[in-house]
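Please check this one:

***
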Amino acid sequence: MDTEMGGATNSLNVPNALLQITGPSAWCALGKDGQRLGLVPRWGVDHPRDWRMLRQRLMNLGFEKAIAPTPAALAKWLDDAGYILQDGHCNRHFTSDDFRVAGTGLNPIVSWLFEWAVVVTWGMGPAFGPQAAKRQVKRFRQYQRRTALYAPMEQPHTQRPDALAMLYEDLGGAPEYLDIRTWDEFFSVGAIEHSRAKFRLNSSMRPIVEMEALSPMHAIVLTVYIDRLFTKREMGTCKLCKQKFERRFRNQLFCSAPPQGISHQTLWKTRLRRAKVRLIRAARERAPRANDWVWIAKAAQRDLKKQKDYVNESNQNLLRITPQWARQETMKITRRTK
């Protein structure tokens, strides 16, 4: 153990210490307009929460898709994270009916979740990390000082739009459609606010540092900072199901298969093979000669590369169709049908 003296404080470097994040022991109340109303004493059983799993579920709620997340998925995530709805003087769990769109516009709580899902996804991506984080936080604070961002709180985007565009560029391509105050809260969690922490030893005498989060979203953002700055954890997008997942190694392209299920890599390869066979049969029907396998293979490969599932495929060798393979697969189908 190394000890460094800093003024009247001893700085300890404890090897193999386990860092844990604990959320608030009470419910975090939200108003119908998405405002945070403080903590409410918890009722029922307080189950331990896996903040990394909640982070992954937040990123996979489906905000980036053409359709919004289902009301049931939103209510389930908020309940599991530790949020409740304060409706008048009544505190209750969220239900699907709370996320029905009334008239035009988006539910304020859905908008709040959408912004945090985008920021957390950006934080787990390549744009934010040990090399870039310090510079990005510095640039954000410089932007705040130069523009006096919160001078008129009602119009936070009206001052210095050129400086705002430069800020997003310095953040490494950060989404520009988010409220600047969301970015302020994200950067403040890890760089400005001081989180309370406790030190203890477990039954095996292993040192444990427990960080106390102020809210469920605060705990999730803390996991982003810890994983991106102090570990090699990185998020990827599964090539099959398009869900975000935590990579175990750098070149991992598929998420883990469900228990007793087929791996997504196997399913993706099976889907690719079937697409090739289907295109070979279609190319053979319009070929000048039925057994011109060179022409058939080239036509099928050209059609395969145009499909949306494979148009951005980086490994072009996977999309290759040879005349020999095209003939072999066609003969297999012919023998089965006899």
In short: Residues 264-285 form the longest helix (22 residues). The CA atoms of residues 277 and 333 lie 9 Å apart.
